[in-house]
């Protein structure tokens, strides 16, 4: 009887260790891809920082997009689409000037805060974000992944 319980404890420890190895490191850089790799977008994205990483359901998360442009952006919008595997699970449109200081020119940071519902399933997600300027001119379009972890116990 004791050996079965010991075996269960060992198997549980191995399962927990395997799950921890699958989680991305907090300091890992988020890989960003342009939607159209051959297009010369007016806004260049140099990086994305996600805090915390992985995102925790029911807790605030911040997505900071570092970018630069030679244009002066006075108005515009962000179209955000979130996918869980291949399924679209969330879409929204935001005012660019609500996410950064306008007019934006040179180097700037778009900072988007979001609290996901506590029932959000853990796993890998993908965000596609289009930056649109005056007359819906596409300033940039990027895609990047992020992870949602398990709900932490209180």
Automatic annotation (TrEMBL):
Q: Which PROSITE patterns match?
A: PROKAR_LIPOPROTEIN
UniProt keyword terms in alphabetical order: Signal
Q: Which InterPro entries match?
A: Ig_E-set, ML_dom, ML_PG-PI_TP, NPC2-like
Q: Which terms under GO biological process does the entry name?
A: intracellular sterol transport; sterol transport
The record, for SMART domains, names: ML
MD-2-related lipid-recognition domain span = 32-146
Is Signal tagged as a keyword? yes
Q: Show the GO MF annotations.
A: sterol binding
> Which Pfam families does the UniProt record give?
E1_DerP2_DerF2
Which stretch is the leader sequence?
A: 1-28
Under the heading CDD domains, the entry gives: PG-PI_TP
Name of this chain's protein: MD-2-related lipid-recognition domain-containing protein
What gene name is listed for this protein? LOC101773301
């Amino acid at each position: 009887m004791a050996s079965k319980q010991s075996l269960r404890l060992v198997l549980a420890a191995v399962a927990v260790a395997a799950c921890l190895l699958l989680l991305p490191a907090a300091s890992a850089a988020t890989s960003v891809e342009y939607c159209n790799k051959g297009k010369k977008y007016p806004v260049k994205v140099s990086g994305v920082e996600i805090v915390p990483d992985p995102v925790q359901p029911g807790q605030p998360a911040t997505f900071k997009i570092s970018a630069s442009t030679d244009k002066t952006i006075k108005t515009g919008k962000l179209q955000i689409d979130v996918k869980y595997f291949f399924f679209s699970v969330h879409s929204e449109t935001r005012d660019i000037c609500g996410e950064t200081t306008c007019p934006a020119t040179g180097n700037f940071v778009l900072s988007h805060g979001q609290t996901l519902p506590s029932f959000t399933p853990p796993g890998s997600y993908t965000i596609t974000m289009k930056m649109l300027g005056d007359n819906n001119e596409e300033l940039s379009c990027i895609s990047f992944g992020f992870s949602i972890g398990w709900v932490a116990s209180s």
